[in-house]
From TrEMBL:
It comes from Gnomoniopsis smithogilvyi. Keywords: DNA-binding, Transcription, Transcription regulation. The keyword Protein biosynthesis does not apply. GO terms for cellular component: nucleus. This is Multiprotein-bridging factor 1.
């Protein structure tokens, strides 16, 4: 047995460990790193985990925070509101606001905001209104108000 030399495979294969970035979890670990004088940086992760595409809401909020101007939220507009009100009253039989809201699976208050033109556009509600009233409420200025489907006559 003395003829055999012992061979250890892979003991020297790994070099010394280089310093690398570490993720600090929790406020206590962050405070400890700052006390010891380590370089600490904080970043907002927009795409987390295995998400194919990150949510852009954080980026939009950051842009709003950095912009000193007050940005008014988008609304459906008065012309769309008047169009909804006119089409609702032109229907046979006339639909009340409550009946149309029930048909579109929403509340009368929200429908009132759409008729006033002050509501923020919700594609789901606009689609339901388009189907119920058979009129286009989205798109370019020349498309809004045209029938959604042509009559078969």
């Amino acid at each position: 047995m003395s003829d055999w030399d012992t061979v250890t495979i892979g003991s020297k294969a790994r070099a010394g460990q280089a310093s690398r970035e570490t993720v600090v979890r929790g406020k206590g670990a962050l405070n400890a790193a700052q006390r010891s004088g380590l370089i600490v940086g904080q970043e907002k992760k927009f795409a987390v985990g295995n998400a194919a595409k990150g949510n852009t809401e954080g980026q939009r909020q950051k842009k709003l925070d950095e912009n000193p101007d007050i940005i008014k939220p988008k609304t459906v507009g008065v012309e769309v509101g008047k169009l909804i009100m006119n089409k609702r009253q032109e229907m046979e039989p006339k639909l009340s606001r409550d009946q149309l809201a029930k048909k579109c699976n929403t509340t009368a208050n929200i429908l009132g905001q759409y008729e006033n033109g002050t509501a923020q556009p919700d594609q789901k509600i606009l689609d339901a209104l388009e189907r119920a009233l058979n009129v286009r409420l989205r798109g370019s200025k020349d498309v809004i108000g045209t029938p959604r489907f042509k009559s078969k006559k």
